[in-house]
């Protein structure tokens, strides 16, 4: 499917959202809708993390975090949509650097001790 059709669909979807927002904000424009969507996308995972962290902790069922967002449960469909960023382990690199640094400090101590004892 050519790119132009996808951008047309996206623009049409934004137009629908702008019209939905106008009763609440008469001066609604696309930038405002984009910002609202961005806020939803960034706030929901933070609240979800708080809930999951409280469930994993040793807290009892009475201590589980209750989301403060009124729309939290409405966005639960996003849980399956979130894909974690791929990351590479830096453990091997960190260990190599640590080993190199520790060897350098041993060498420095030896050199320093040689100077003192001469």
Topology:
Blueprint: H1 3-21, H2 30-56, H3 91-117
Structure overview:
By secondary structure, the protein is mainly alpha-helical. 62% of the residues lie in helices and 0% in strands. It is built from 3 helices and no strands. Helix 1 crosses helix 2 (30-56). Mean pLDDT is 77; it is low at 106-118.
Please sum up the structure shown.
The chain has 118 residues and is mainly α. It contains three helices and no strands. It is flat, with a radius of gyration of 27 Å.
Count of DSSP H/I helices? 3
Order of helices and strands: HHH
- What can be said about the biggest beta sheet? none
User: Percentage of helical residues?
Assistant: 55-70%
Main structural class: mainly alpha
Low-confidence segments, ≥5 residues, pLDDT <50?
Answer: 106-118
Radius of gyration: 27 Å
Distance between the amino and carboxyl termini = 79 Å
Beta-strand residue fraction: under 5%
- Principal-axis shape: flat
The overall pLDDT, averaged over residues, is 77
The tally of beta strands, per DSSP, is 0
């Amino acid at each position: 499917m050519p790119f132009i059709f996808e951008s047309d669909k996206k623009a049409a979807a934004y137009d629908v959202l702008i019209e939905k927002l106008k009763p609440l904000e008469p001066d609604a424009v696309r930038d405002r809708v984009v910002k609202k969507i961005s806020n939803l996308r960034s706030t929901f995972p933070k609240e979800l993390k708080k809930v999951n962290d409280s469930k994993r902790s040793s807290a009892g069922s009475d201590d589980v975090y209750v989301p403060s967002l009124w729309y939290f449960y409405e966005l639960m469909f996003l849980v399956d949509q979130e894909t974690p960023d791929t990351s590479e382990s830096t453990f091997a690199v960190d260990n190599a650097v640590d080993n190199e640094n520790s060897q350098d400090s041993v060498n420095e101590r030896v050199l320093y001790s040689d100077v003192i004892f001469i």
